[in-house]
Write a structure and sequence with these properties.
The chain is of the alpha/beta class and 195 residues long. The chain is 29% helix and 24% strand. The chain has a single domain (36-192), classed as Vaccinia Virus protein VP39 (Rossmann fold).
Length: 195
């Protein structure tokens, strides 16, 4: 007789991580035209900041963020898949940004970084997280007071009601909505941790 399987109803076990082999389908030469990191994150990210790009993929946002934080800043490019992190290392080296980008392999149930953050971004990845509430709580705990968390989800994967539910969960863990940036093909929100 097998033991009874206990399932937490708050955790969606049907969510899947985008396979690393598919990342080039949306992270390609056209992406800078529609998701320019300087335009998306420039209003919120400054020199010397410590920034987390969680679910970084090939590092599209990480590279742009590294340019924004400057020589004294740090971008932590975090992903679950080691193949993605290898691509980030290669791209950072090619762009001369290796000194500003540190890769970090996430665990299946948590991000696991230790640094206190000024800014975090989750671009097109929260819909892959099995326990959104735990994820949001972890990011909230990592942010410094006054820090911000930029969340963008693809419209094709996240309905408006689902996104608003995500925003509500964010508020339940302590975030406040400070902006609703317009992001092409996406639903987006800037969440802040009050000082």
């Amino acid at each position: 007789m097998q033991p009874e399987r206990i399932v937490n109803p708050k955790i969606n076990t049907k969510k899947q991580v985008c396979p690393w082999q598919h990342v080039r389908t949306f992270d390609n030469l056209l992406r800078p035209l529609i998701h320019n990191p300087r335009k998306l994150f420039g209003p919120y990210v400054g020199r010397g900041m410590t920034v987390l790009d969680v679910g970084c993929g090939r590092g599209f946002a990480s590279l742009g963020l590294a340019r924004l934080v400057g020589d004294n800043g740090l971008v932590i490019a975090a992903d679950l898949q080691p193949q993605m992190l290898e691509m980030v290392k290669e791209r950072a080296a090619s762009a001369g940004l290796s000194d500003r980008i540190r890769v970090h392999r996430c665990e299946a149930t948590r991000v696991g970084v230790q640094e206190k953050l000024d800014f975090a971004v989750a671009f097109w990845m929260v819909h892959e997280v099995p326990d959104e509430l735990a994820f949001l709580s972890e990011i909230f705990g990592l942010l410094k007071p006054g820090g911000s968390f930029f969340v963008a989800e693809p419209k094709v994967r996240t309905s408006r009601p689902d996104f608003e539910q995500l925003v509500q969960k964010s508020q339940n863990v302590g975030f406040v909505v400070s902006d609703r940036p317009r992001v092409f093909l996406s639903r987006a929100v800037l969440l802040s941790k009050k000082v």
